[in-house]
């Protein structure tokens, strides 16, 4: 592909990925308006979020293998059209059931789209310097997408209507579809790729059970019968999936994808990073709106500095150094800086603390996390055979999605427990109940943020121990020959 076409291809791929990532958060700010408009109960409103994450996280492995079977470009374009149609359906929802169904459909097509996008990126850019620049842009999109979603959700909800948080995907998807049609290389299916039906059932079933279980834990509690059943069933199905993958003729997740030491390090790093990050985004949003009383738009604007820091970390630090230094020298310091940002944020009180705590914490968080994430993306998709690029990309996206689900459920539960404990310990005659509630809420957020801090430290430890490559690898079978992995597990 000519140089100019490659960079235009990056624009198309990044646009599609941005749509998928920001859709995880853009609806959050619009949720109160949608709940009132469609008469949703407090118990049911979570399904606006859960229906999307459940389908997306549960079907990613299957979506990755479909892209290997049908061809990356074809899968990418089908995903775009389906996502646009599902978004239009959700925007036009006349009842909560219609909205929940549309969000689930969005998740199904996102599970096709996200692995195909990452596979296209990995196989389009194979020269080390170009690859570093392209992954820098992609890493910035992945890292900043959640914050951009919060800003976009605030703007659309405040000045138009909550439905536009869904309608906005339609022109974006159609624009990306036109670009993909004109620019992307055909990329036919691999003749030796086959769909592993038992693996698809076991893997997707296990992921669906886990994601659903973690999502329900936030509201039901970890000792609820349904939550325990789902989590146990998810683990059992995934263990069976792992055993089957060692025996299947053409496995859904080839063992070569998860035996490479560098990729395992990247997958685990991303898992624990997103465990910490998704919950913190939620807490900061509630802190700014619920405690400080900020509007949705002002809350969205508050995330802009972090978005800028993410772009700098991905494009100006990681992209420039990725081909020159060992990956862990980018990942580990990046995660330590991000953890430092969380340590600052974890000290906020009920008084306004945006300039003194939230802003510096966000800047450190954005800079460090994007540097680590961009490097991890490159590790996760490097040195993988072209026929398995969809499976590797899907595994990376699965680590993100599962991490986000675990983080949201786990940190929400921790925050709620800490809040309740604080209320019990400080309640008494003459106490200002409104102030006490605010103090207890902030205390709960702070306790949960310290847990998120621990998740980032664990991610840094894993990256420091497991990732030992001298340089980030490049894809096999395209461009320059890729050296053998430094080490393998097993």
Structural class: mainly alpha
- Which percent band covers the strand fraction? under 5%
Q: What best-fitting shape do the alpha-carbon axes yield?
A: globular
Q: How many distinct helices? A: 18
Number of strands: 0
How would a crystallographer describe the biggest sheet?
A: none
Poorly predicted regions: 477-490
Fraction of helical residues: over 70%
Can you give a write-up of this model?
With 490 residues, the protein is mainly α. The protein contains 18 helices and no strands. 78% of the residues lie in helices and 0% in strands. It has helices at 3-22, 26-38, 47-70, 72-91, 96-124, 128-159, 164-167, 169-183, 197-220, 225-245, 255-259, 261-291, 296-302, 304-321, 328-345, 354-381, 389-426, 433-466.
Strand and helix map with partners:
Elements: H1 3-22, H2 26-38, H3 47-70, H4 72-91, H5 96-124, H6 128-159, H7 164-167, H8 169-183, H9 197-220, H10 225-245, H11 255-259, H12 261-291, H13 296-302, H14 304-321, H15 328-345, H16 354-381, H17 389-426, H18 433-466
Summarize this structure as a short list of keywords or feature phrases:
single chain, 490 residues, mainly alpha, 78% helix, globular, disordered C terminus
Task: Describe the structure concisely.
Helix content is 78%, strand content 0%. The chain is mostly helical and 490 residues long.
């Amino acid at each position: 592909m000519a140089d100019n076409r490659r960079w235009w291809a990056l624009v198309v791929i990044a646009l599609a990925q941005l749509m998928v990532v920001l859709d995880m958060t853009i609806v959050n700010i619009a949720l109160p308006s949608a709940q009132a408009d469609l008469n949703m109960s407090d118990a049911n409103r979570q399904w606006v979020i859960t229906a999307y994450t459940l389908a997306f996280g549960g079907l990613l492995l299957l979506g990755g293998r479909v892209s290997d079977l049908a061809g990356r470009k074809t899968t990418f374009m089908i995903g775009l059209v389906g996502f646009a149609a599902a978004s239009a359906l959700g925007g036009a929802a006349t009842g909560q059931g219609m909205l929940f169904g549309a969000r689930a459909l969005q998740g199904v097509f996102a599970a096709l789209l996200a692995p195909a996008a990452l596979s296209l990126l990995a196989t389009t850019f194979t020269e080390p310097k170009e690859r570093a620049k392209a992954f820098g842009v992609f890493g910035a999109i992945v890292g900043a997408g959640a914050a951009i979603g919060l800003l976009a959700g605030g703007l659309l909800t405040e000045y138009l209507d909550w439905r536009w948080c869904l309608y906005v995907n339609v022109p974006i998807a159609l624009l990306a579809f036109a670009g993909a049609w004109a620019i992307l290389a055909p990329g036919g299916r691999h003749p030796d790729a086959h769909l592993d039906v038992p693996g698809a059932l076991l893997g997707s079933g296990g992921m669906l059970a886990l994601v659903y279980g973690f999502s329900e834990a936030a509201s039901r509690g970890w000792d609820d019968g349904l939550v325990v059943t789902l989590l146990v069933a998810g683990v059992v199905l995934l263990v069976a999936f792992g055993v089957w993958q060692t025996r299947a003729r053409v496995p859904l997740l080839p063992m070569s994808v998860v035996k490479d030491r560098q990729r395992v390090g990247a997958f685990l790093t991303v898992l624990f990073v997103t465990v910490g990050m998704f919950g913190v985004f939620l807490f900061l949003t509630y802190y700014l709106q619920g405690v400080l009383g900020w509007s949705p738009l002002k809350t969205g604007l508050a995330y802009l500095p972090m978005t800028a820091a993410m772009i700098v970390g991905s494009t100006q630090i990681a992209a420039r150094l990725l081909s020159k230094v060992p990956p862990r020298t980018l990942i580990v310091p990046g995660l330590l800086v991000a953890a430092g940002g969380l340590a600052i944020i974890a000290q906020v009180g009920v008084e306004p603390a945006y300039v003194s705590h939230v802003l510096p914490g966000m800047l450190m968080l954005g800079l460090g996390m994007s540097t680590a994430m961009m490097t991890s993306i490159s590790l996760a998709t490097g040195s993988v055979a072209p026929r398995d690029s969809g499976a590797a990309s899907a595994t990376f996206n699965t680590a993100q999605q599962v991490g986000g689900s675990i983080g949201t459920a786990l940190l929400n539960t921790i925050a709620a427990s800490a809040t309740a404990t604080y209320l019990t310990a400080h309640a008494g005659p003459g106490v200002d109940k409104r102030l006490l509630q605010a103090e207890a809420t902030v205390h709960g957020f702070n306790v949960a943020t310290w847990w998120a801090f621990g998740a980032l430290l664990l991610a840094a430890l894993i990256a420091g121990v497991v990732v030992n490559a001298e340089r980030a690898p490049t894809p096999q079978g395209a461009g320059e020959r890729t050296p053998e992995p430094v080490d393998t597990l097993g």
